[in-house]
Backbone:
């Protein structure tokens, strides 16, 4: 019997982590690995694109952790600029098209890893497909966007969507000296934060000179005679001049191929997978931005497009299809970003999410410092905790602050992961020395205050007798 | 019936946290609070003393979080420069001496909080009590040490003991342009780290220009005709000139009073307390550096002198004696410090400690960066994990690195607290964005490698058949 065949669709984090893990466990005699990538690049950091656009990262190559050549050296038949245009799950073949040569051919598989990532959400408005409208999902996208900026004719940039990517690209363009406006339907940027935290983000964005048009949507993208975008019209009737429009509305899982092939999707619209990253189609695995995950707090299926999950899920798929055993136990909604010198982070549920998940909760907000208050360089940090009524279980946390503030979210993420109560969190043996924290670390102060809130609520008369 | 009487011995973190919590729960009509402090200062950061000595903190007052006057405003009868010289647990009185006036008097109590802190370990060598030999436990100690340095006649400083405090004071003196030598019996500084990590600390100390005399003890302190220390003689026969000698050998719990009063000590030499911080003497509570705590991993009783525990324990004692309910659930040995620009931290058990506690374990060491590798300012970070054989339970972690490296120890401390296995740690939903971490956070990379080590060990032939 010949070698088994593994086909991977998608040459970035999830797909290539799976391929590498499988290769580690099965040599070329046992397993043939063919990987298809539509773009020119493999295994790169899409999250790093804004920093390459701004110039903070000088060389695009630095964003690439493993080139096609390196994958080939590792015994993977890596085919870039090759798009998979169909999957036949019954025949166990994929149909591939060479984007440069135009040749089409079938490739058989025993195991398939579906790792197509995500596509930017595109509002269904006139002009959305005009020249000058860019996504920033792939390194090819990023290269095109940067080439446009380097062309020197861009002066006005409008970013549609004030989420993480939207703000990161806004800052990058602002650093390049451009006139930047961000349009978003929410009242405050990064709508996954509660509005009280979002206000800090809004201030930071404005302070760096980026204009914010909030609580407003996009109605139309006006194009010039040459078909190039020239302005964005908002729902409220504003006209924002735009030589360049960036889609920062978040992403949708790239599931078109899977849907056509009959690989079942889940309620969230992502591909349904089990803990081992198996889809419901025989021999088909999936990982990364295109799949849905279990949110450990809400119990809901969610699609979270984030490189860290893509890497972990790809690893899990690769171990399993290589004959090992591994699981991906879900997500809790941890995220972090930096807006100028403002750091923000979140984990668990926001107030709105906790509400939707049916939790009753109390909140606590504290202001503290990242180092001992008297220590040079001590920076502001504000923490907000959300804790379940009665039990005191920590449900969510948000941090906003300056240098060294936001990474503390990981402690709270680990506490939430372990279903800790705020009462126990405040007892945690966290590190202390004046250059690193006040004697009560801000995390502990917040837990103490949340505990007091849980305690006070428990003592208050029950508003629902009976 | 009149107000109950609470007497507190010790006006720093533990004692005054207890007093403040009790005051919060019981007003002056219900509870009279008298607090005795031998020194001039209350509620200060002893950990901040080195930074005041170096000049990083300009004003000593900044180290004081609550002055005696503030405590008095809060309804606490705060008596500074007053030493408690005896406790009569049968009669429920303490004997106090006014250090300035000389007056002695008895003070009755219903509840007593014993929070006398620690005293520096003093090697029993000739000359140890000479003028010019300083501890750095109290703000009065710090003020005396700084006055000596400000006097301008000090040129050579010898620090006995290369632990946290020893190195912090060494750096402070070095910053002041002095000739500094650290003497320690261990092979590497901060002996609570494994030697492989300790080597990095040794290099950092030497690189800043501080001399290290390791694997050597102190035999004698030579004094001049005026009784002032002039040199330190080591066990190996070296003579180190010293205008100033600092005791950095760590501390002993200050339990002399308790021992005389018959308040039972535990096996570690600290005062024995239960989870609510009650001693075995009726009406006597204790908290802070003078008590012993349960180490949650070794199961042993240990004395850990650290402001963060003192504050938590004082809070617990104060809540309980104020009629509430709170517990202190123990420690896991978390510590952090900075040597020049080198950050080091630890939590859980070191290899030696794990061995002594009877664990069998594997270790994993990884080198990574604090931000995405391509991101400007990405700094080195090395993590070492210790995981139990077979189960994979995380037992200990050590970090050494540059800017933003060490505080990540808190994630591992939280994981250890929750008895997580490295397999689950590597799945944690930790925050990721290029300015904050690589896509696999160093903590996750280390957990992945530790998991591999656990896995490899489990597959190896059992060396103890039968």
Residues:
């Amino acid at each position: 019997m010949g070698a088994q065949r593994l086909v991977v669709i998608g040459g970035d984090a999830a797909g290539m982590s799976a391929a590498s893990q499988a290769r580690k466990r099965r040599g070329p005699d046992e397993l043939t690995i063919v990987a298809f990538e539509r773009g020119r690049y493999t295994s790169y950091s899409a999250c790093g694109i804004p920093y390459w656009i701004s110039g903070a990262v000088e060389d695009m190559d630095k964003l690439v952790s493993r080139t096609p050549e390196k994958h080939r050296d590792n015994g993977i038949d890596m085919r870039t600029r090759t798009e998979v245009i169909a999957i036949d799950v019954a025949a166990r073949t994929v149909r591939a098209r060479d984007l440069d040569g135009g040749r089409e051919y079938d490739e058989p598989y025993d195991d398939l890893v579906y790792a197509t990532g995500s596509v930017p959400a595109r509002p269904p408005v006139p002009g959305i497909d005009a020249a000058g409208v860019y996504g920033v999902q792939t390194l090819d996208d990023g290269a095109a966007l940067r080439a446009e900026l380097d062309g020197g004719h861009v002066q006005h940039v409008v970013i549609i969507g004030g989420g993480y990517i939207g703000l990161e690209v806004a800052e990058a363009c602002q650093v390049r000296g451009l006139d930047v406006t961000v349009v978003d339907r929410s009242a405050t940027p990064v709508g996954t934060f509660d509005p009280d935290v979002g206000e800090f983000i809004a201030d930071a964005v404005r302070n760096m000179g980026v204009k914010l048009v909030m609580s407003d949507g996009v109605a139309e993208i006006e194009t010039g005679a040459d078909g190039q975008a020239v302005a964005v019209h908002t729902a409220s009737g504003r006209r924002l001049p735009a030589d360049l429009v960036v889609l920062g509305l978040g992403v949708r899982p790239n599931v078109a191929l899977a849907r056509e092939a009959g690989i079942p999707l889940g309620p969230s619209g992502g591909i349904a997978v089990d803990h081992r990253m198996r889809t419901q189609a025989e021999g088909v695995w999936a990982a990364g931005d295109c799949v849905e995950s279990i949110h450990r707090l809400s119990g809901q299926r969610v699609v979270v497009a984030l490189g860290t999950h893509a890497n972990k899920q790809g690893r899990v798929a690769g171990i399993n299809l290589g004959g090992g055993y591994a699981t991906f136990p879900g997500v809790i909604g941890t995220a972090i970003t930096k807006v100028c010198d403002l750091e923000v982070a979140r984990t668990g549920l926001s107030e709105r999410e906790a509400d939707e998940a049916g939790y009753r909760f109390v909140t606590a907000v504290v202001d503290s410092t990242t180092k001992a208050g008297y220590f040079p360089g001590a920076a502001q940090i504000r923490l907000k905790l959300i804790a379940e009524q009665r039990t005191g279980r920590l449900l969510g946390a948000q941090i906003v602050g300056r240098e060294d503030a936001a990474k503390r979210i990981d402690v709270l993420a680990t506490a939430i992961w372990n279903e800790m109560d705020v009462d126990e969190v405040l007892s945690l043996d966290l590190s202390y020395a004046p250059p690193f924290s006040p004697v009560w670390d801000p995390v502990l102060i917040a837990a103490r205050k949340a505990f007091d809130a849980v305690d006070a609520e428990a003592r208050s008369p029950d508003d629902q007798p009976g």
About this structure: Chain B has three domains: 4-119+252-321, 122-249, 335-454. The mean pLDDT of chain B is 96. Chain B touches chain A through 66 residues (CB under 8 Å). The domain at 335-454 of chain B is CATH 3.50.50.60 (FAD/NAD(P)-binding domain).
